[in-house]
Amino acid sequence: MWGEPCDIHLLDSEHFAAAQQGSDIVYRAEIVRDQHDAGLPGGIHSPARLPATTPPANGGTEIRRHCVPCRTVRQQQPSHADEFQDRNTQLGRNSPAPLGHGRSLTCDTTNMRLGLGLPQFGPFADPTGVGTVAAAAQQLGFDGLWVGERLHAPTEPLSSYPGGDGRMPELFRSGLDPLVTLTLAAQATDGMRLGSSTIGAPLHAPMVLARQLAGIDQLSRGQLDIGLGLSWSQDEYCGAGVPWRQRGARLDETLDVLETLFGPDPVEHSGQRWQVTPGQFQPKPVQRPRPPIYLGGYSETAFRRVAARADGWLGVALPVEQLGRTIDTIGKYAVETGRDPDTLATIVRINPAEPVTADGWLRDYLHSIAELGVRETFVDLQFASSTVPELLEMAGEVRRAFPTSR
Q: Going from the N-terminus, what domains does the chain have, and what CATH number goes with each?
Protein backbone atom coordinates (compact mmCIF):
# COMPACT_ATOMS: atom_id res chain seq x y z
CA MET A 1 0.00 0.00 0.00
CA TRP A 2 2.73 2.43 0.97
CA GLY A 3 4.61 2.04 -2.30
CA GLU A 4 1.63 3.31 -4.27
CA PRO A 5 1.05 6.96 -5.15
CA CYS A 6 -2.04 8.16 -3.36
CA ASP A 7 -2.74 11.84 -3.73
CA ILE A 8 -1.78 15.01 -5.51
CA HIS A 9 -4.06 17.67 -4.21
CA LEU A 10 -2.10 20.90 -4.14
CA LEU A 11 -0.15 21.43 -7.33
CA ASP A 12 2.50 23.81 -8.48
CA SER A 13 4.28 23.65 -11.81
CA GLU A 14 7.38 21.89 -10.45
CA HIS A 15 5.38 19.15 -8.72
CA PHE A 16 3.10 18.71 -11.71
CA ALA A 17 5.93 18.44 -14.21
CA ALA A 18 7.82 15.88 -12.13
CA ALA A 19 4.73 13.72 -11.71
CA GLN A 20 3.83 13.85 -15.38
CA GLN A 21 7.36 12.93 -16.44
CA GLY A 22 7.38 9.77 -14.36
CA SER A 23 9.74 11.11 -11.69
CA ASP A 24 10.89 8.69 -9.01
CA ILE A 25 9.39 11.14 -6.54
CA VAL A 26 5.99 9.81 -5.58
CA TYR A 27 3.33 12.35 -4.78
CA ARG A 28 0.98 11.07 -2.20
CA ALA A 29 -0.68 12.26 0.96
CA GLU A 30 1.32 11.35 4.04
CA ILE A 31 -1.53 9.41 5.57
CA VAL A 32 -1.27 6.78 8.24
CA ARG A 33 -2.72 3.36 7.82
CA ASP A 34 -5.77 3.89 9.98
CA GLN A 35 -6.57 7.08 8.04
CA HIS A 36 -6.35 5.61 4.55
CA ASP A 37 -10.12 5.53 4.08
CA ALA A 38 -10.65 8.97 5.56
CA GLY A 39 -12.22 10.68 2.56
CA LEU A 40 -9.31 12.93 1.64
CA PRO A 41 -11.18 15.25 -0.72
CA GLY A 42 -12.78 16.90 2.26
CA GLY A 43 -9.53 18.77 2.84
CA ILE A 44 -7.08 20.51 0.55
CA HIS A 45 -3.81 18.67 0.71
CA SER A 46 -0.26 19.35 -0.35
CA PRO A 47 1.86 16.84 -2.26
CA ALA A 48 4.36 14.91 -0.21
CA ARG A 49 7.75 14.40 -1.82
CA LEU A 50 8.35 10.90 -0.49
CA PRO A 51 10.20 7.87 -1.83
CA ALA A 52 7.83 5.19 -3.09
CA THR A 53 9.01 2.71 -0.46
CA THR A 54 8.93 4.99 2.58
CA PRO A 55 6.20 4.09 5.13
CA PRO A 56 5.29 6.26 8.11
CA ALA A 57 8.10 6.23 10.64
CA ASN A 58 6.16 4.30 13.28
CA GLY A 59 3.78 2.42 11.00
CA GLY A 60 0.81 4.34 12.32
CA THR A 61 -0.47 7.56 13.82
CA GLU A 62 1.60 9.51 16.30
CA ILE A 63 -0.96 10.12 19.02
CA ARG A 64 0.11 12.68 21.55
CA ARG A 65 -3.15 12.87 23.49
CA HIS A 66 -6.71 11.69 23.23
CA CYS A 67 -10.25 12.64 24.14
CA VAL A 68 -13.11 10.39 25.17
CA PRO A 69 -14.55 9.54 21.71
CA CYS A 70 -11.04 8.75 20.42
CA ARG A 71 -9.63 6.49 23.14
CA THR A 72 -9.90 3.41 20.98
CA VAL A 73 -7.93 4.78 18.01
CA ARG A 74 -5.42 2.12 16.98
CA GLN A 75 -1.97 2.60 15.54
CA GLN A 76 -2.18 -0.49 13.35
CA GLN A 77 -4.24 -0.64 10.21
CA PRO A 78 -7.79 -1.73 11.09
CA SER A 79 -9.81 -4.20 9.17
CA HIS A 80 -12.17 -2.43 6.83
CA ALA A 81 -14.70 -5.24 7.05
CA ASP A 82 -16.74 -3.25 9.56
CA GLU A 83 -16.40 -0.02 7.55
CA PHE A 84 -18.05 -1.15 4.36
CA GLN A 85 -21.37 -2.89 4.08
CA ASP A 86 -22.31 -4.06 0.62
CA ARG A 87 -26.08 -3.81 0.73
CA ASN A 88 -28.61 -5.01 -1.80
CA THR A 89 -30.30 -1.61 -1.56
CA GLN A 90 -27.84 0.71 -3.27
CA LEU A 91 -28.14 4.45 -3.66
CA GLY A 92 -26.91 4.39 -7.23
CA ARG A 93 -29.42 2.00 -8.72
CA ASN A 94 -32.43 4.28 -8.64
CA SER A 95 -30.48 7.49 -8.88
CA PRO A 96 -30.92 10.37 -11.29
CA ALA A 97 -28.68 10.35 -14.33
CA PRO A 98 -25.19 11.53 -13.31
CA LEU A 99 -23.21 14.16 -15.12
CA GLY A 100 -21.68 11.67 -17.52
CA HIS A 101 -19.59 8.56 -17.93
CA GLY A 102 -16.91 7.65 -15.47
CA ARG A 103 -14.62 7.07 -18.44
CA SER A 104 -16.16 7.51 -21.83
CA LEU A 105 -15.11 5.54 -24.89
CA THR A 106 -15.42 8.53 -27.22
CA CYS A 107 -14.20 11.82 -25.83
CA ASP A 108 -14.97 15.37 -26.86
CA THR A 109 -12.89 17.53 -24.53
CA THR A 110 -15.35 20.40 -24.84
CA ASN A 111 -17.95 18.29 -23.02
CA MET A 112 -16.12 18.20 -19.70
CA ARG A 113 -17.79 20.52 -17.23
CA LEU A 114 -15.58 23.10 -15.51
CA GLY A 115 -16.34 24.44 -12.05
CA LEU A 116 -14.79 26.85 -9.55
CA GLY A 117 -14.14 26.50 -5.84
CA LEU A 118 -16.03 29.04 -3.74
CA PRO A 119 -14.17 31.32 -1.28
CA GLN A 120 -14.29 29.83 2.22
CA PHE A 121 -10.96 29.65 4.01
CA GLY A 122 -8.33 31.95 5.44
CA PRO A 123 -8.65 35.46 3.98
CA PHE A 124 -11.75 34.27 2.13
CA ALA A 125 -13.66 33.34 5.30
CA ASP A 126 -15.95 36.31 4.76
CA PRO A 127 -19.54 35.56 3.73
CA THR A 128 -19.83 38.86 1.87
CA GLY A 129 -17.45 37.60 -0.80
CA VAL A 130 -19.32 34.40 -1.64
CA GLY A 131 -22.09 35.99 -3.67
CA THR A 132 -19.63 38.20 -5.54
CA VAL A 133 -17.51 35.24 -6.63
CA ALA A 134 -20.54 33.07 -7.41
CA ALA A 135 -22.18 35.66 -9.65
CA ALA A 136 -18.90 36.45 -11.40
CA ALA A 137 -18.21 32.75 -11.97
CA GLN A 138 -21.56 32.40 -13.72
CA GLN A 139 -20.75 35.38 -15.94
CA LEU A 140 -17.40 33.81 -16.79
CA GLY A 141 -19.17 30.65 -17.94
CA PHE A 142 -18.27 28.19 -15.20
CA ASP A 143 -20.63 25.23 -14.91
CA GLY A 144 -20.59 24.70 -11.15
CA LEU A 145 -19.47 26.00 -7.76
CA TRP A 146 -17.87 23.82 -5.09
CA VAL A 147 -17.12 23.85 -1.36
CA GLY A 148 -15.10 21.78 1.10
CA GLU A 149 -15.27 21.36 4.86
CA ARG A 150 -12.89 21.81 7.78
CA LEU A 151 -14.61 21.64 11.14
CA HIS A 152 -11.65 22.24 13.46
CA ALA A 153 -8.05 23.50 13.31
CA PRO A 154 -6.31 22.06 16.41
CA THR A 155 -3.07 23.58 17.72
CA GLU A 156 -1.81 20.14 18.87
CA PRO A 157 -3.54 17.72 16.50
CA LEU A 158 -4.20 14.10 17.36
CA SER A 159 -3.28 13.13 13.81
CA SER A 160 -0.96 14.70 11.28
CA TYR A 161 -2.29 16.56 8.30
CA PRO A 162 -2.27 14.13 5.35
CA GLY A 163 0.24 15.95 3.19
CA GLY A 164 3.47 17.89 3.11
CA ASP A 165 5.19 18.02 6.50
CA GLY A 166 2.06 16.97 8.38
CA ARG A 167 1.12 20.45 9.55
CA MET A 168 -2.29 21.84 8.66
CA PRO A 169 -2.05 24.82 6.28
CA GLU A 170 -2.64 28.16 7.95
CA LEU A 171 -5.44 28.76 5.45
CA PHE A 172 -7.63 26.37 7.46
CA ARG A 173 -7.36 28.32 10.70
CA SER A 174 -10.62 29.99 9.73
CA GLY A 175 -13.36 28.85 7.40
CA LEU A 176 -17.01 29.23 6.45
CA ASP A 177 -19.49 26.40 6.89
CA PRO A 178 -19.92 24.63 3.53
CA LEU A 179 -23.71 24.52 3.62
CA VAL A 180 -23.96 28.21 4.52
CA THR A 181 -21.57 28.93 1.64
CA LEU A 182 -23.69 26.93 -0.82
CA THR A 183 -26.81 28.74 0.40
CA LEU A 184 -25.21 32.12 -0.32
CA ALA A 185 -24.11 30.90 -3.76
CA ALA A 186 -27.61 29.64 -4.55
CA GLN A 187 -29.02 33.08 -3.82
CA ALA A 188 -26.49 34.75 -6.14
CA THR A 189 -26.79 32.46 -9.17
CA ASP A 190 -29.39 31.02 -11.49
CA GLY A 191 -29.08 27.46 -12.76
CA MET A 192 -25.49 26.75 -11.67
CA ARG A 193 -24.68 23.37 -10.17
CA LEU A 194 -23.66 23.56 -6.51
CA GLY A 195 -21.51 20.81 -5.03
CA SER A 196 -19.45 19.75 -2.03
CA SER A 197 -16.10 17.99 -2.17
CA THR A 198 -16.43 16.94 0.52
CA ILE A 199 -18.58 17.14 3.61
CA GLY A 200 -17.49 14.82 6.43
CA ALA A 201 -20.74 12.90 6.66
CA PRO A 202 -20.15 11.04 9.96
CA LEU A 203 -19.64 14.39 11.71
CA HIS A 204 -23.27 15.35 11.03
CA ALA A 205 -26.56 13.95 12.31
CA PRO A 206 -28.04 12.49 9.10
CA MET A 207 -31.58 13.80 9.60
CA VAL A 208 -30.30 17.34 10.20
CA LEU A 209 -27.98 17.00 7.20
CA ALA A 210 -30.87 15.78 5.04
CA ARG A 211 -32.97 18.80 6.03
CA GLN A 212 -30.14 21.21 5.15
CA LEU A 213 -29.38 19.52 1.81
CA ALA A 214 -33.05 19.42 0.81
CA GLY A 215 -33.32 23.14 1.58
CA ILE A 216 -30.34 24.00 -0.63
CA ASP A 217 -31.76 21.91 -3.47
CA GLN A 218 -35.06 23.76 -3.09
CA LEU A 219 -33.38 27.17 -3.00
CA SER A 220 -31.25 26.39 -6.08
CA ARG A 221 -34.24 24.88 -7.92
CA GLY A 222 -32.64 21.47 -8.20
CA GLN A 223 -28.94 22.21 -8.72
CA LEU A 224 -27.33 20.41 -5.76
CA ASP A 225 -24.59 17.76 -6.09
CA ILE A 226 -24.03 16.08 -2.72
CA GLY A 227 -20.38 15.13 -2.11
CA LEU A 228 -19.58 13.18 1.05
CA GLY A 229 -16.45 11.77 2.67
CA LEU A 230 -15.17 10.70 6.07
CA SER A 231 -12.71 13.43 7.20
CA TRP A 232 -9.16 12.40 8.09
CA SER A 233 -9.07 14.47 11.32
CA GLN A 234 -9.46 12.67 14.64
CA ASP A 235 -9.82 16.08 16.31
CA GLU A 236 -12.94 16.79 14.26
CA TYR A 237 -14.47 13.51 15.43
CA CYS A 238 -13.60 14.35 19.03
CA GLY A 239 -15.14 17.81 18.73
CA ALA A 240 -18.31 16.42 17.18
CA GLY A 241 -18.57 13.71 19.84
CA VAL A 242 -18.38 10.95 17.21
CA PRO A 243 -16.30 7.76 17.61
CA TRP A 244 -13.33 7.52 15.25
CA ARG A 245 -13.71 3.77 14.86
CA GLN A 246 -16.32 2.39 12.44
CA ARG A 247 -16.60 5.77 10.73
CA GLY A 248 -17.06 3.99 7.41
CA ALA A 249 -20.05 2.11 8.81
CA ARG A 250 -21.48 5.44 10.01
CA LEU A 251 -21.13 6.79 6.48
CA ASP A 252 -22.97 3.75 5.12
CA GLU A 253 -25.87 4.25 7.50
CA THR A 254 -25.91 7.99 6.75
CA LEU A 255 -26.43 7.08 3.10
CA ASP A 256 -29.29 4.80 4.14
CA VAL A 257 -30.96 7.59 6.12
CA LEU A 258 -30.60 10.11 3.29
CA GLU A 259 -32.08 7.63 0.83
CA THR A 260 -35.02 7.05 3.15
CA LEU A 261 -35.73 10.71 3.95
CA PHE A 262 -35.46 11.80 0.32
CA GLY A 263 -37.83 9.01 -0.69
CA PRO A 264 -41.62 8.82 -0.42
CA ASP A 265 -43.49 9.45 2.81
CA PRO A 266 -44.07 8.00 5.30
CA VAL A 267 -40.35 7.68 6.04
CA GLU A 268 -38.94 5.22 8.55
CA HIS A 269 -35.47 3.97 9.42
CA SER A 270 -34.26 1.52 12.05
CA GLY A 271 -30.49 1.14 12.16
CA GLN A 272 -27.60 0.53 14.53
CA ARG A 273 -27.03 4.23 15.22
CA TRP A 274 -30.20 6.11 14.29
CA GLN A 275 -33.92 5.51 14.55
CA VAL A 276 -36.39 7.48 12.43
CA THR A 277 -39.95 6.83 13.55
CA PRO A 278 -42.65 6.71 10.85
CA GLY A 279 -43.60 10.17 9.64
CA GLN A 280 -43.37 12.83 6.97
CA PHE A 281 -40.18 14.51 5.77
CA GLN A 282 -41.04 17.64 3.79
CA PRO A 283 -40.12 19.45 1.67
CA LYS A 284 -38.28 16.92 -0.44
CA PRO A 285 -35.41 17.93 -2.73
CA VAL A 286 -36.47 19.21 -6.14
CA GLN A 287 -34.38 16.54 -7.88
CA ARG A 288 -36.17 13.21 -7.87
CA PRO A 289 -35.77 10.64 -6.61
CA ARG A 290 -32.93 12.61 -4.97
CA PRO A 291 -29.91 14.78 -5.80
CA PRO A 292 -26.82 12.93 -7.08
CA ILE A 293 -24.55 11.65 -4.30
CA TYR A 294 -20.81 11.40 -4.89
CA LEU A 295 -18.24 9.90 -2.53
CA GLY A 296 -14.56 10.60 -1.94
CA GLY A 297 -11.78 8.36 -0.67
CA TYR A 298 -8.58 6.67 -1.88
CA SER A 299 -8.55 3.15 -0.46
CA GLU A 300 -9.92 -0.05 -1.94
CA THR A 301 -12.73 0.16 0.61
CA ALA A 302 -13.61 3.66 -0.57
CA PHE A 303 -13.52 2.63 -4.23
CA ARG A 304 -15.82 -0.32 -3.57
CA ARG A 305 -18.23 1.93 -1.70
CA VAL A 306 -18.30 4.34 -4.64
CA ALA A 307 -18.91 1.49 -7.07
CA ALA A 308 -21.75 0.03 -5.01
CA ARG A 309 -23.49 3.04 -3.56
CA ALA A 310 -22.71 6.34 -5.27
CA ASP A 311 -23.35 8.25 -8.49
CA GLY A 312 -19.62 8.77 -8.89
CA TRP A 313 -16.22 9.42 -7.37
CA LEU A 314 -14.76 12.69 -6.06
CA GLY A 315 -11.10 12.59 -7.00
CA VAL A 316 -8.12 14.92 -7.05
CA ALA A 317 -5.53 15.92 -9.63
CA LEU A 318 -3.55 12.72 -9.82
CA PRO A 319 -1.13 12.19 -12.71
CA VAL A 320 -3.19 11.36 -15.79
CA GLU A 321 -2.20 7.70 -16.07
CA GLN A 322 -2.84 7.08 -12.38
CA LEU A 323 -6.17 8.84 -12.58
CA GLY A 324 -7.16 6.62 -15.50
CA ARG A 325 -6.19 3.48 -13.57
CA THR A 326 -8.23 4.63 -10.59
CA ILE A 327 -11.29 5.22 -12.76
CA ASP A 328 -10.84 1.77 -14.30
CA THR A 329 -10.56 0.19 -10.83
CA ILE A 330 -13.82 1.76 -9.69
CA GLY A 331 -15.42 0.63 -12.94
CA LYS A 332 -14.26 -2.94 -12.34
CA TYR A 333 -15.81 -2.91 -8.87
CA ALA A 334 -19.02 -1.49 -10.32
CA VAL A 335 -19.27 -4.43 -12.72
CA GLU A 336 -18.77 -6.81 -9.78
CA THR A 337 -21.82 -5.28 -8.07
CA GLY A 338 -23.93 -5.51 -11.23
CA ARG A 339 -23.75 -1.82 -12.14
CA ASP A 340 -22.82 -0.22 -15.44
CA PRO A 341 -19.54 1.69 -14.87
CA ASP A 342 -20.56 4.23 -17.49
CA THR A 343 -23.26 5.45 -15.11
CA LEU A 344 -20.59 6.61 -12.63
CA ALA A 345 -19.21 10.13 -12.98
CA THR A 346 -15.70 11.20 -12.05
CA ILE A 347 -15.30 14.70 -10.61
CA VAL A 348 -11.74 15.98 -10.12
CA ARG A 349 -10.67 18.69 -7.68
CA ILE A 350 -7.60 20.76 -8.67
CA ASN A 351 -5.96 23.05 -6.10
CA PRO A 352 -3.11 25.07 -7.63
CA ALA A 353 -0.47 26.22 -5.16
CA GLU A 354 0.67 29.13 -7.33
CA PRO A 355 -0.99 31.55 -9.77
CA VAL A 356 -2.21 29.97 -13.00
CA THR A 357 -2.37 31.33 -16.52
CA ALA A 358 -4.40 30.39 -19.57
CA ASP A 359 -1.35 28.98 -21.38
CA GLY A 360 0.34 27.11 -18.51
CA TRP A 361 0.35 23.55 -17.18
CA LEU A 362 -3.28 23.74 -16.11
CA ARG A 363 -4.48 23.99 -19.71
CA ASP A 364 -2.63 20.82 -20.70
CA TYR A 365 -3.83 18.94 -17.64
CA LEU A 366 -7.47 19.90 -18.17
CA HIS A 367 -7.42 18.69 -21.76
CA SER A 368 -5.62 15.47 -20.76
CA ILE A 369 -8.16 14.46 -18.14
CA ALA A 370 -11.01 15.42 -20.47
CA GLU A 371 -9.60 12.96 -22.98
CA LEU A 372 -9.71 10.31 -20.23
CA GLY A 373 -13.46 10.79 -20.08
CA VAL A 374 -13.59 12.77 -16.82
CA ARG A 375 -16.95 14.47 -16.91
CA GLU A 376 -16.33 17.34 -14.49
CA THR A 377 -13.46 19.12 -12.80
CA PHE A 378 -13.23 22.21 -10.66
CA VAL A 379 -10.36 24.49 -9.74
CA ASP A 380 -10.02 25.88 -6.21
CA LEU A 381 -7.84 29.00 -6.25
CA GLN A 382 -7.74 29.79 -2.54
CA PHE A 383 -4.13 28.64 -2.11
CA ALA A 384 -2.99 30.65 -5.12
CA SER A 385 -4.66 33.98 -4.27
CA SER A 386 -5.44 36.13 -1.25
CA THR A 387 -8.19 38.57 -2.33
CA VAL A 388 -11.47 38.26 -4.19
CA PRO A 389 -10.29 40.41 -7.14
CA GLU A 390 -7.13 38.31 -7.45
CA LEU A 391 -9.13 35.09 -7.31
CA LEU A 392 -11.53 36.30 -10.00
CA GLU A 393 -8.72 37.47 -12.26
CA MET A 394 -7.18 34.00 -12.02
CA ALA A 395 -10.59 32.41 -12.57
CA GLY A 396 -10.73 34.22 -15.89
CA GLU A 397 -7.39 32.63 -16.81
CA VAL A 398 -8.76 29.21 -15.88
CA ARG A 399 -11.82 29.74 -18.03
CA ARG A 400 -9.66 30.78 -20.98
CA ALA A 401 -7.42 27.75 -20.46
CA PHE A 402 -10.39 25.45 -21.06
CA PRO A 403 -13.13 27.01 -23.20
CA THR A 404 -16.06 24.67 -23.81
CA SER A 405 -19.00 24.50 -26.15
CA ARG A 406 -21.44 25.12 -23.32
A: 10-401 (3.20.20.30)
